Amino acid sequence: MSAGTRVFVARLAGTQVFDPIGDLVGRVRDVVVLVRAKGAPRVVGLVVEVPGRRRVFLPMTRVTSIDAGQVISTGLLNMRRFEQRAMESLVLGELLDRTVRFKDGSGEATVEDLAIARQRNGDWLVDQLFVRRRQAGKSTLGIRRRGATLVVGIDAVTGLAAAEQEQGAARLLEAYEDMRPADLADVLHELGGTRRLEVATALDNERLADVLEELPEDDQVAILSGLDRDRAADVLEAMQPDDAADLLHELPDAQAAQLLELMEPEEAEDVRRLLAYGEDTAGGLMTTEPVILGPETTIATALAQIRKQDLPPALASMVFVVRPPLEVPTGRFLGVAHFQRLLREPPHAAVGSVLETDTEWLTPDAPLGRVTRLLAAYDLLALPVLDEEKRLLGAVSVDDVLDHILPDDWRESDDESIDEAPTSGTEATRG
Protein backbone atom coordinates (compact mmCIF):
# COMPACT_ATOMS: atom_id res chain seq x y z
CA MET A 1 0.00 0.00 0.00
CA SER A 2 1.71 3.13 -1.23
CA ALA A 3 1.67 6.59 0.27
CA GLY A 4 -1.15 8.67 -1.15
CA THR A 5 -3.79 5.93 -0.93
CA ARG A 6 -7.13 7.71 -0.36
CA VAL A 7 -10.43 6.18 0.74
CA PHE A 8 -13.82 7.78 1.36
CA VAL A 9 -15.13 6.46 4.67
CA ALA A 10 -18.82 6.04 3.81
CA ARG A 11 -17.78 3.62 1.07
CA LEU A 12 -15.59 1.77 3.56
CA ALA A 13 -18.54 0.85 5.81
CA GLY A 14 -19.28 -2.87 5.56
CA THR A 15 -15.99 -3.67 3.82
CA GLN A 16 -14.62 -7.10 4.66
CA VAL A 17 -11.45 -7.37 6.74
CA PHE A 18 -9.05 -10.28 6.12
CA ASP A 19 -5.98 -11.52 7.95
CA PRO A 20 -2.64 -12.09 6.14
CA ILE A 21 -3.55 -15.65 5.06
CA GLY A 22 -6.91 -14.60 3.61
CA ASP A 23 -9.30 -15.65 6.38
CA LEU A 24 -12.24 -13.33 6.96
CA VAL A 25 -11.92 -11.45 10.27
CA GLY A 26 -14.99 -9.21 10.15
CA ARG A 27 -16.41 -6.06 8.59
CA VAL A 28 -15.59 -2.38 9.00
CA ARG A 29 -18.27 -0.52 10.96
CA ASP A 30 -16.55 2.83 11.58
CA VAL A 31 -13.30 4.76 11.54
CA VAL A 32 -11.77 6.23 14.72
CA VAL A 33 -10.09 9.63 14.43
CA LEU A 34 -8.57 12.24 16.70
CA VAL A 35 -10.04 15.61 15.70
CA ARG A 36 -7.61 18.35 16.70
CA ALA A 37 -8.10 22.10 16.93
CA LYS A 38 -5.17 22.57 14.57
CA GLY A 39 -4.07 20.25 11.82
CA ALA A 40 -5.86 17.43 10.02
CA PRO A 41 -7.67 14.77 12.08
CA ARG A 42 -5.48 11.70 12.57
CA VAL A 43 -6.91 8.24 11.95
CA VAL A 44 -6.02 5.86 14.77
CA GLY A 45 -7.93 2.76 13.75
CA LEU A 46 -11.01 0.97 12.48
CA VAL A 47 -13.98 -0.39 14.40
CA VAL A 48 -14.41 -3.94 13.10
CA GLU A 49 -17.42 -6.15 13.76
CA VAL A 50 -16.33 -9.76 14.27
CA PRO A 51 -18.55 -12.86 14.65
CA GLY A 52 -20.87 -12.59 17.62
CA ARG A 53 -21.64 -8.92 16.80
CA ARG A 54 -18.66 -7.87 18.90
CA ARG A 55 -16.98 -4.65 17.84
CA VAL A 56 -13.22 -4.52 18.30
CA PHE A 57 -10.46 -2.02 17.55
CA LEU A 58 -8.04 -2.54 14.65
CA PRO A 59 -5.13 -0.03 14.81
CA MET A 60 -4.16 1.56 11.52
CA THR A 61 -0.60 0.37 12.19
CA ARG A 62 -1.99 -3.15 11.64
CA VAL A 63 -3.64 -2.28 8.31
CA THR A 64 -1.45 -3.26 5.37
CA SER A 65 -3.89 -2.66 2.51
CA ILE A 66 -7.19 -0.93 1.75
CA ASP A 67 -8.22 -1.57 -1.83
CA ALA A 68 -10.57 -3.49 -4.13
CA GLY A 69 -13.29 -3.49 -1.53
CA GLN A 70 -11.26 -5.19 1.18
CA VAL A 71 -9.02 -4.42 4.14
CA ILE A 72 -5.98 -6.58 4.88
CA SER A 73 -4.63 -6.64 8.43
CA THR A 74 -1.50 -8.12 9.89
CA GLY A 75 -0.75 -9.66 13.27
CA LEU A 76 -3.11 -10.74 16.01
CA LEU A 77 -6.35 -8.83 16.57
CA ASN A 78 -7.18 -7.77 20.10
CA MET A 79 -10.67 -9.22 20.71
CA ARG A 80 -11.42 -6.93 23.64
CA ARG A 81 -14.62 -4.99 22.98
CA PHE A 82 -14.03 -1.53 21.51
CA GLU A 83 -14.51 1.34 23.94
CA GLN A 84 -14.36 4.87 22.60
CA ARG A 85 -12.00 7.20 24.44
CA ALA A 86 -12.76 10.77 25.38
CA MET A 87 -10.67 12.43 22.64
CA GLU A 88 -11.76 10.05 19.88
CA SER A 89 -14.52 10.59 17.31
CA LEU A 90 -16.33 8.06 15.12
CA VAL A 91 -16.48 9.27 11.52
CA LEU A 92 -19.76 7.60 10.57
CA GLY A 93 -21.34 7.88 13.97
CA GLU A 94 -20.43 11.46 14.82
CA LEU A 95 -18.88 13.48 11.98
CA LEU A 96 -21.23 12.85 9.06
CA ASP A 97 -23.95 15.52 8.70
CA ARG A 98 -21.90 17.95 10.80
CA THR A 99 -22.03 21.63 9.76
CA VAL A 100 -18.74 23.27 8.78
CA ARG A 101 -17.94 26.82 7.66
CA PHE A 102 -15.75 27.84 4.74
CA LYS A 103 -12.73 29.87 5.83
CA ASP A 104 -13.15 32.19 2.85
CA GLY A 105 -16.49 33.36 4.26
CA SER A 106 -18.59 31.84 1.45
CA GLY A 107 -21.04 30.16 3.82
CA GLU A 108 -21.71 26.80 5.47
CA ALA A 109 -21.89 23.22 4.29
CA THR A 110 -22.95 19.80 5.58
CA VAL A 111 -20.37 17.00 5.70
CA GLU A 112 -21.54 14.03 3.61
CA ASP A 113 -18.31 12.05 3.58
CA LEU A 114 -14.66 12.24 4.65
CA ALA A 115 -11.59 10.97 2.81
CA ILE A 116 -8.67 9.43 4.68
CA ALA A 117 -5.24 9.28 3.04
CA ARG A 118 -1.99 7.52 3.91
CA GLN A 119 0.98 9.83 4.35
CA ARG A 120 4.62 9.15 3.49
CA ASN A 121 5.43 8.48 7.14
CA GLY A 122 2.68 5.81 7.31
CA ASP A 123 0.15 7.90 9.26
CA TRP A 124 -3.42 8.17 8.05
CA LEU A 125 -5.06 11.62 8.07
CA VAL A 126 -8.44 13.02 7.09
CA ASP A 127 -7.39 15.26 4.20
CA GLN A 128 -10.60 15.94 2.25
CA LEU A 129 -14.31 16.45 2.88
CA PHE A 130 -17.20 15.80 0.53
CA VAL A 131 -19.70 18.49 1.48
CA ARG A 132 -23.00 19.99 0.35
CA ARG A 133 -23.34 23.77 0.50
CA ARG A 134 -26.21 25.04 2.59
CA GLN A 135 -28.63 26.84 0.31
CA ALA A 136 -30.85 29.50 1.83
CA GLY A 137 -34.44 30.07 0.74
CA LYS A 138 -36.83 28.10 -1.48
CA SER A 139 -37.57 27.88 -5.18
CA THR A 140 -40.61 29.49 -6.78
CA LEU A 141 -42.45 26.17 -6.26
CA GLY A 142 -41.84 26.32 -2.53
CA ILE A 143 -39.31 23.47 -2.55
CA ARG A 144 -36.18 23.96 -0.49
CA ARG A 145 -33.13 24.21 -2.73
CA ARG A 146 -30.38 21.63 -2.40
CA GLY A 147 -26.92 23.12 -2.38
CA ALA A 148 -24.12 22.08 -4.70
CA THR A 149 -21.73 19.32 -3.64
CA LEU A 150 -17.97 19.63 -3.78
CA VAL A 151 -14.76 18.12 -2.45
CA VAL A 152 -12.66 20.48 -0.33
CA GLY A 153 -9.41 20.17 1.55
CA ILE A 154 -9.66 19.79 5.30
CA ASP A 155 -7.84 23.09 5.75
CA ALA A 156 -10.54 24.98 3.79
CA VAL A 157 -13.19 24.70 6.54
CA THR A 158 -13.66 25.11 10.27
CA GLY A 159 -16.11 23.53 12.68
CA LEU A 160 -15.37 19.83 12.28
CA ALA A 161 -14.02 19.73 15.83
CA ALA A 162 -17.15 21.28 17.35
CA ALA A 163 -18.14 19.08 20.27
CA GLU A 164 -21.83 19.86 20.60
CA GLN A 165 -24.03 21.16 17.83
CA GLU A 166 -27.32 20.27 16.24
CA GLN A 167 -26.64 17.69 13.58
CA GLY A 168 -28.60 15.71 11.04
CA ALA A 169 -28.29 11.98 10.47
CA ALA A 170 -29.14 11.39 6.80
CA ARG A 171 -25.67 10.29 5.66
CA LEU A 172 -25.09 8.08 8.68
CA LEU A 173 -28.38 6.27 8.05
CA GLU A 174 -27.48 5.85 4.38
CA ALA A 175 -24.27 4.12 5.41
CA TYR A 176 -26.21 1.79 7.72
CA GLU A 177 -29.46 1.38 5.76
CA ASP A 178 -28.95 -2.37 5.19
CA MET A 179 -28.24 -3.12 8.84
CA ARG A 180 -30.53 -5.38 10.82
CA PRO A 181 -32.30 -3.66 13.74
CA ALA A 182 -30.12 -5.42 16.31
CA ASP A 183 -26.92 -4.25 14.59
CA LEU A 184 -28.17 -0.67 14.23
CA ALA A 185 -29.12 -0.77 17.91
CA ASP A 186 -25.48 -1.60 18.69
CA VAL A 187 -24.38 1.44 16.70
CA LEU A 188 -26.80 3.73 18.54
CA HIS A 189 -25.77 2.33 21.90
CA GLU A 190 -22.14 3.29 21.25
CA LEU A 191 -22.99 6.90 20.36
CA GLY A 192 -23.12 9.78 22.81
CA GLY A 193 -26.53 10.70 24.20
CA THR A 194 -27.07 13.76 21.99
CA ARG A 195 -25.96 12.04 18.78
CA ARG A 196 -27.99 8.92 19.65
CA LEU A 197 -31.17 10.98 19.90
CA GLU A 198 -30.41 12.80 16.62
CA VAL A 199 -30.03 9.51 14.79
CA ALA A 200 -33.08 7.96 16.45
CA THR A 201 -35.20 10.98 15.54
CA ALA A 202 -34.19 10.63 11.88
CA LEU A 203 -35.48 7.03 11.68
CA ASP A 204 -39.04 6.41 10.53
CA ASN A 205 -41.47 5.10 13.15
CA GLU A 206 -41.36 1.43 12.09
CA ARG A 207 -37.56 1.31 11.91
CA LEU A 208 -37.18 3.13 15.22
CA ALA A 209 -39.66 0.77 16.87
CA ASP A 210 -37.65 -2.26 15.67
CA VAL A 211 -34.39 -0.72 16.91
CA LEU A 212 -35.82 0.28 20.30
CA GLU A 213 -36.84 -3.32 20.91
CA GLU A 214 -33.14 -4.29 20.64
CA LEU A 215 -31.70 -1.58 22.92
CA PRO A 216 -30.99 -1.74 26.66
CA GLU A 217 -33.78 -0.27 28.79
CA ASP A 218 -31.81 2.86 29.73
CA ASP A 219 -31.30 3.73 26.06
CA GLN A 220 -34.95 3.02 25.29
CA VAL A 221 -36.13 5.37 28.01
CA ALA A 222 -33.66 8.11 27.04
CA ILE A 223 -34.69 8.03 23.37
CA LEU A 224 -38.43 7.86 23.98
CA SER A 225 -38.24 10.66 26.54
CA GLY A 226 -36.28 12.79 24.07
CA LEU A 227 -38.94 12.57 21.34
CA ASP A 228 -41.89 14.93 21.28
CA ARG A 229 -44.95 13.30 22.87
CA ASP A 230 -46.94 12.70 19.68
CA ARG A 231 -43.95 11.07 17.95
CA ALA A 232 -43.25 8.92 21.03
CA ALA A 233 -46.86 7.70 21.01
CA ASP A 234 -46.60 6.85 17.29
CA VAL A 235 -43.44 4.82 17.91
CA LEU A 236 -45.09 2.92 20.76
CA GLU A 237 -47.95 2.03 18.41
CA ALA A 238 -45.44 0.61 15.92
CA MET A 239 -43.83 -1.62 18.57
CA GLN A 240 -45.04 -5.07 19.50
CA PRO A 241 -47.59 -4.56 22.32
CA ASP A 242 -45.55 -6.58 24.82
CA ASP A 243 -42.39 -4.59 24.05
CA ALA A 244 -44.32 -1.31 24.32
CA ALA A 245 -45.71 -2.41 27.69
CA ASP A 246 -42.22 -3.34 28.93
CA LEU A 247 -40.94 0.11 27.92
CA LEU A 248 -43.85 1.93 29.57
CA HIS A 249 -43.14 -0.03 32.77
CA GLU A 250 -39.77 1.78 32.87
CA LEU A 251 -41.25 5.28 32.57
CA PRO A 252 -42.69 7.40 35.39
CA ASP A 253 -46.40 6.65 35.84
CA ALA A 254 -47.48 10.13 34.75
CA GLN A 255 -45.44 9.99 31.54
CA ALA A 256 -46.67 6.49 30.71
CA ALA A 257 -50.30 7.51 31.26
CA GLN A 258 -49.87 10.56 29.04
CA LEU A 259 -48.41 8.51 26.19
CA LEU A 260 -51.20 5.93 26.46
CA GLU A 261 -53.75 8.73 26.08
CA LEU A 262 -52.04 9.91 22.89
CA MET A 263 -51.99 6.43 21.32
CA GLU A 264 -54.78 5.17 19.09
CA PRO A 265 -57.47 3.69 21.41
CA GLU A 266 -57.26 0.18 19.92
CA GLU A 267 -53.45 0.06 20.22
CA ALA A 268 -53.52 1.55 23.71
CA GLU A 269 -56.09 -0.99 24.88
CA ASP A 270 -53.79 -3.91 24.03
CA VAL A 271 -50.93 -2.29 25.93
CA ARG A 272 -53.11 -1.42 28.95
CA ARG A 273 -54.24 -5.03 29.12
CA LEU A 274 -50.62 -6.19 29.29
CA LEU A 275 -49.69 -3.56 31.88
CA ALA A 276 -52.29 -5.02 34.21
CA TYR A 277 -50.25 -8.22 34.59
CA GLY A 278 -47.04 -8.74 36.53
CA GLU A 279 -43.87 -8.38 34.45
CA ASP A 280 -42.71 -11.94 35.25
CA THR A 281 -46.01 -13.68 34.49
CA ALA A 282 -47.36 -15.17 31.28
CA GLY A 283 -49.73 -12.21 30.98
CA GLY A 284 -46.88 -9.73 31.28
CA LEU A 285 -44.70 -11.63 28.81
CA MET A 286 -47.30 -12.36 26.14
CA THR A 287 -48.01 -10.53 22.92
CA THR A 288 -51.60 -9.88 21.92
CA GLU A 289 -50.77 -10.16 18.21
CA PRO A 290 -50.06 -13.81 17.32
CA VAL A 291 -51.60 -15.22 14.13
CA ILE A 292 -55.22 -15.92 15.04
CA LEU A 293 -57.54 -17.68 12.57
CA GLY A 294 -60.96 -19.27 12.45
CA PRO A 295 -61.22 -23.05 11.88
CA GLU A 296 -62.66 -22.61 8.36
CA THR A 297 -59.62 -20.63 7.13
CA THR A 298 -57.76 -22.40 4.33
CA ILE A 299 -54.20 -23.62 4.83
CA ALA A 300 -53.13 -21.41 1.90
CA THR A 301 -54.38 -18.35 3.79
CA ALA A 302 -52.69 -19.52 6.99
CA LEU A 303 -49.36 -19.88 5.20
CA ALA A 304 -49.75 -16.41 3.71
CA GLN A 305 -50.31 -15.00 7.20
CA ILE A 306 -47.14 -16.50 8.66
CA ARG A 307 -45.08 -15.33 5.67
CA LYS A 308 -45.51 -11.69 6.70
CA GLN A 309 -42.11 -10.05 7.00
CA ASP A 310 -42.79 -8.23 10.27
CA LEU A 311 -43.90 -11.39 12.09
CA PRO A 312 -41.23 -12.63 14.55
CA PRO A 313 -39.96 -16.13 13.67
CA ALA A 314 -41.16 -17.63 16.95
CA LEU A 315 -44.74 -16.49 16.31
CA ALA A 316 -44.53 -17.71 12.70
CA SER A 317 -44.02 -21.27 13.94
CA MET A 318 -47.76 -21.83 14.47
CA VAL A 319 -51.22 -20.35 14.06
CA PHE A 320 -53.78 -20.18 16.87
CA VAL A 321 -57.28 -21.30 15.93
CA VAL A 322 -60.36 -20.01 17.77
CA ARG A 323 -64.09 -19.46 17.46
CA PRO A 324 -65.12 -15.89 16.57
CA PRO A 325 -64.41 -13.19 17.52
CA LEU A 326 -60.82 -13.38 16.29
CA GLU A 327 -59.62 -10.33 18.27
CA VAL A 328 -58.33 -10.92 21.80
CA PRO A 329 -59.98 -11.91 24.01
CA THR A 330 -61.24 -14.28 21.34
CA GLY A 331 -63.94 -16.87 21.24
CA ARG A 332 -63.21 -20.34 22.59
CA PHE A 333 -59.67 -21.58 21.86
CA LEU A 334 -59.67 -24.71 19.66
CA GLY A 335 -55.98 -25.52 19.21
CA VAL A 336 -52.87 -24.74 17.18
CA ALA A 337 -51.63 -25.68 13.71
CA HIS A 338 -47.87 -25.92 13.41
CA PHE A 339 -46.05 -24.53 10.38
CA GLN A 340 -44.55 -27.90 9.38
CA ARG A 341 -47.94 -29.61 9.47
CA LEU A 342 -49.43 -26.87 7.30
CA LEU A 343 -46.73 -27.47 4.69
CA ARG A 344 -47.70 -31.15 4.42
CA GLU A 345 -51.42 -30.58 3.79
CA PRO A 346 -53.38 -29.51 0.67
CA PRO A 347 -53.62 -25.71 0.37
CA HIS A 348 -57.43 -25.83 0.01
CA ALA A 349 -57.95 -27.77 3.27
CA ALA A 350 -59.19 -25.94 6.37
CA VAL A 351 -56.83 -25.35 9.29
CA GLY A 352 -59.54 -26.77 11.57
CA SER A 353 -58.84 -30.19 10.05
CA VAL A 354 -55.17 -30.27 11.10
CA LEU A 355 -55.38 -28.94 14.64
CA GLU A 356 -53.31 -30.07 17.57
CA THR A 357 -55.92 -29.87 20.32
CA ASP A 358 -53.91 -31.15 23.28
CA THR A 359 -51.25 -28.41 23.26
CA GLU A 360 -50.12 -27.06 26.61
CA TRP A 361 -51.38 -23.60 27.55
CA LEU A 362 -50.89 -21.00 30.25
CA THR A 363 -53.06 -18.85 32.46
CA PRO A 364 -52.13 -15.14 32.51
CA ASP A 365 -50.90 -15.38 36.10
CA ALA A 366 -48.56 -18.33 35.40
CA PRO A 367 -45.07 -17.51 36.74
CA LEU A 368 -42.00 -17.23 34.55
CA GLY A 369 -40.67 -20.56 35.84
CA ARG A 370 -43.70 -22.47 34.55
CA VAL A 371 -43.48 -20.71 31.20
CA THR A 372 -39.84 -21.69 30.68
CA ARG A 373 -40.43 -25.29 31.83
CA LEU A 374 -43.28 -25.83 29.37
CA LEU A 375 -41.39 -24.28 26.45
CA ALA A 376 -38.34 -26.45 27.19
CA ALA A 377 -40.24 -29.65 27.97
CA TYR A 378 -42.24 -29.65 24.73
CA ASP A 379 -39.65 -27.97 22.46
CA LEU A 380 -42.05 -25.14 21.61
CA LEU A 381 -41.37 -21.63 20.34
CA ALA A 382 -44.66 -20.20 21.62
CA LEU A 383 -47.49 -21.05 24.01
CA PRO A 384 -51.10 -19.81 24.10
CA VAL A 385 -52.35 -17.85 27.10
CA LEU A 386 -56.00 -18.51 27.97
CA ASP A 387 -58.44 -17.08 30.51
CA GLU A 388 -60.73 -19.19 32.72
CA GLU A 389 -63.30 -19.41 29.92
CA LYS A 390 -60.68 -20.83 27.53
CA ARG A 391 -60.57 -17.65 25.44
CA LEU A 392 -57.23 -16.77 23.83
CA LEU A 393 -55.62 -13.69 25.38
CA GLY A 394 -52.28 -13.85 23.60
CA ALA A 395 -49.14 -15.95 23.22
CA VAL A 396 -45.78 -16.12 24.96
CA SER A 397 -42.83 -16.65 22.62
CA VAL A 398 -39.40 -17.95 23.50
CA ASP A 399 -37.63 -14.70 22.52
CA ASP A 400 -39.66 -12.74 25.09
CA VAL A 401 -38.80 -15.30 27.76
CA LEU A 402 -35.09 -15.06 26.93
CA ASP A 403 -35.21 -11.27 27.33
CA HIS A 404 -36.46 -11.78 30.90
CA ILE A 405 -34.18 -14.60 32.04
CA LEU A 406 -30.92 -13.20 30.63
CA PRO A 407 -29.01 -10.62 32.72
CA ASP A 408 -30.16 -7.03 32.27
CA ASP A 409 -26.87 -6.13 30.56
CA TRP A 410 -26.71 -9.18 28.27
CA ARG A 411 -26.55 -6.95 25.16
CA GLU A 412 -23.38 -5.36 26.47
CA SER A 413 -21.69 -8.42 28.00
CA ASP A 414 -18.68 -9.97 26.33
CA ASP A 415 -18.89 -13.54 25.12
CA GLU A 416 -16.48 -15.36 27.41
CA SER A 417 -16.04 -18.10 24.84
CA ILE A 418 -14.14 -15.71 22.55
CA ASP A 419 -10.40 -15.90 23.09
CA GLU A 420 -9.07 -12.46 23.89
CA ALA A 421 -5.61 -12.52 22.42
CA PRO A 422 -4.06 -9.11 23.05
CA THR A 423 -2.10 -7.51 20.25
CA SER A 424 1.18 -6.13 21.35
CA GLY A 425 1.35 -2.38 20.92
CA THR A 426 -2.38 -2.00 20.24
CA GLU A 427 -3.10 0.24 23.21
CA ALA A 428 -0.10 2.44 22.52
CA THR A 429 -1.39 3.23 19.03
CA ARG A 430 -4.40 5.03 20.49
CA GLY A 431 -2.46 7.59 22.48
TrEMBL record:
Q: What ranges does the record give for the region Disordered, renumbered to this chain? A: 412-431
One Pfam family it belongs to: MgtE_N
Q: Name one GO cellular component term.
A: membrane
SUPFAM superfamilies attached to this UniProt entry: CBS-domain pair (SSF54631), MgtE N-terminal domain-like (SSF158791)
Q: Which UniProt keywords apply?
A: CBS domain
Q: What is a GO molecular function of this protein? A: magnesium ion transmembrane transporter activity
SMART domains noted in UniProt: MgtE_N
- The CBS domain extends over 355-413
Name it.
Magnesium transporter
Species name: Xylanimonas oleitrophica
